[in-house]
Design brief:
Layout: E1 2-13, E2 16-28, E3 36-41, E4 44-49, E5 54-59, E6 62-68, E7 73-78, E8 84-88, E9 95-99, E10 105-110, E11 118-124, E12 130-139, E13 142-151, H1 154-157, E14 163-170
Antiparallel strand pairs: 1-2, 3-4, 4-5, 5-6, 7-8, 8-9, 9-10, 11-12, 12-13, 13-14
Length: 174
């Protein structure tokens, strides 16, 4: 079990440390022992049990919400509103699922490994409306990265899986 502590502001002086506000969260039970993933954006952060199914979302006021996933967690990203996107491990192909801060599913996307590759990283826009995912793939013997942009606003509604853009980087891991 880990305890989460959020320090809003810390000053270090010669004679000590001054913290203007500290928020301590409940313990997050680590079921897998694989470790945890901490992602933050300004005053919001998410702690996830890698290989497990638990995510906790915190703000400066404390625990904002808890998310229980159906599949094991590989990676997480969080927006300034507490929207959380995850890469979840699935037997056939990973899933990318986006939740609000209290665990309601907003968007689910079954990854096509043959189309994009395997997702290795993801980041959200501050408002939680745009998600960028880095996929690792190969062409022949050469590795390449595809960075895919998903837009959850009206601009993305007319696109398959809200996918609005792709950039490829041959010979690079992004």
């Amino acid at each position: 079990e880990i305890n989460v502590m959020f320090m809003e502001h810390m000053d270090i002086f010669q004679d000590g440390v001054s913290i203007s506000r500290v928020v301590c969260g409940d313990g997050l039970s680590m079921k897998t022992g694989l470790g945890f993933c901490l992602k933050s954006y300004k005053h919001v952060f998410a702690v996830a049990d890698v290989g497990g199914n638990a995510i906790q979302v915190f703000t400066a006021e404390g625990l904002k919400g808890e998310i229980e996933t159906n599949l094991p967690i590989e990676k997480v990203a969080v927006s300034g509103q507490g929207v959380v996107s995850t890469i979840l491990k699935n037997e056939s192909a990973p899933m990318i699922v986006t939740y609000d801060a209290v665990g309601n599913v907003l968007v689910e996307n079954q990854v096509s490994i043959t189309e994009n590759g395997y997702p290795v990283a993801l980041e959200m826009s501050p408002d939680g409306k745009v998600l960028m995912v880095s996929y690792l793939t190969s062409e022949g013997s050469e590795l390449k990265t595809k960075v895919v942009c998903y837009n959850f606003e009206k601009d993305g509604e007319s696109h398959i899986n809200h996918q609005v853009g792709v950039e490829e980087y041959a010979g690079s891991i992004v």
